[in-house]
């Protein structure tokens, strides 16, 4: 396990929900809740995005004290205003990477080679890879040094086809996350719509939906702690 106590949260830079005219972005609770768990466990948290700078935000509920605390925290506010560009990130600085969800990830995470390379390097150095909700869109094209897909043969969770249909976005998103994970050889383990569901397979931690965000953080702390 990598010795660093720093975790990289990656947020989407994509702000358009297909051709609907609606905006999207990273889903705030899926960043805030893992951040709270990780920071309380003593981890430093950095923020990055494909384009760098301030990313578009979606799903904010400021009646949730955790989301409000994330936005009010001076260090996180500074980092959110100027997220690192993934092309400038050194994977060796991090013991884990977390792909935060939000529908925007479906457009800019899968094809970003720099982002995939960061996760591969962290994983192959003994670190952990985590993702929640639509965040696993960043996992579908990660290949390891032997050419195999990172998710091949592994148990994973992610936003289900059923949840995408319930959201009315099956025909809007560029691909279905559950189906594509399965095409890459992953064993997708789904729960009922909107119910918490966290799946851990070695150093790969995935969560199905927003309700799984805290659980992803908790599971990641356990994975990282086990190797310290």
TrEMBL record:
<dbReference type="InterPro" id="IPR050325">
    <property type="entry name" value="Prot/Nucl_acid_deglycase"/>
</dbReference>
<keyword id="KW-0418">Kinase</keyword>
<dbReference type="GO" id="GO:0019172">
    <property type="term" value="F:glyoxalase III activity"/>
</dbReference>
<keyword id="KW-0346">Stress response</keyword>
<comment type="similarity">
    <text>Belongs to the peptidase C56 family. HSP31-like subfamily.</text>
</comment>
<dbReference type="InterPro" id="IPR002818">
    <property type="entry name" value="DJ-1/PfpI"/>
</dbReference>
<keyword id="KW-0808">Transferase</keyword>
<feature type="domain" description="DJ-1/PfpI">
    <location>
        <begin position="30"/>
        <end position="221"/>
    </location>
</feature>
<protein>
    <submittedName>
        <fullName>Dihydroxyacetone kinase</fullName>
    </submittedName>
</protein>
<dbReference type="GO" id="GO:0016301">
    <property type="term" value="F:kinase activity"/>
</dbReference>
<dbReference type="InterPro" id="IPR029062">
    <property type="entry name" value="Class_I_gatase-like"/>
</dbReference>
<dbReference type="GO" id="GO:0005737">
    <property type="term" value="C:cytoplasm"/>
</dbReference>
<dbReference type="Pfam" id="PF01965">
    <property type="entry name" value="DJ-1_PfpI"/>
</dbReference>
<dbReference type="GO" id="GO:0019243">
    <property type="term" value="P:methylglyoxal catabolic process to D-lactate via S-lactoyl-glutathione"/>
</dbReference>
<keyword id="KW-0456">Lyase</keyword>
């Amino acid at each position: 396990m990598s010795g660093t106590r720093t975790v990289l949260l990656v947020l989407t830079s994509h702000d358009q929900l297909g051709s609907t005219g609606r905006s999207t972005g990273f889903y705030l609770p899926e960043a805030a809740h893992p951040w709270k768990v990780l920071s309380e466990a003593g981890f430093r948290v950095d923020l990055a995005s494909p384009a760098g700078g301030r990313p578009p935000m979606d799903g904010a509920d400021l009646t949730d004290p955790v989301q409000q605390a994330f936005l009010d925290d001076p260090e996180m506010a500074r980092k959110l205003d100027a997220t690192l560009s993934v092309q400038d990130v050194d994977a060796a600085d991090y013991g884990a990477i977390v792909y935060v969800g939000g529908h925007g990830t479906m457009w800019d995470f899968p094809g970003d080679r720099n982002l995939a390379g960061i996760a591969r390097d962290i994983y192959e150095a003994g670190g952990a890879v985590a993702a929640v909700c639509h965040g696993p869109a960043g996992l579908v094209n990660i290949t390891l040094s032997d050419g195999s897909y990172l998710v091949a043969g592994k148990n994973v969770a992610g936003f289900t086809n059923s949840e995408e249909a319930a959201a009315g976005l099956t025909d809007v998103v560029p691909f279905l996350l559950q189906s594509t994970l399965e095409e890459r050889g992953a064993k997708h383990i789904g729960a009922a719509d909107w119910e918490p569901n966290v799946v851990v397979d070695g150093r790969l931690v995935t969560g199905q939906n927003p309700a799984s965000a805290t659980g992803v953080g908790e599971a990641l702390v356990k994975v990282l702690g086990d190797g310290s």
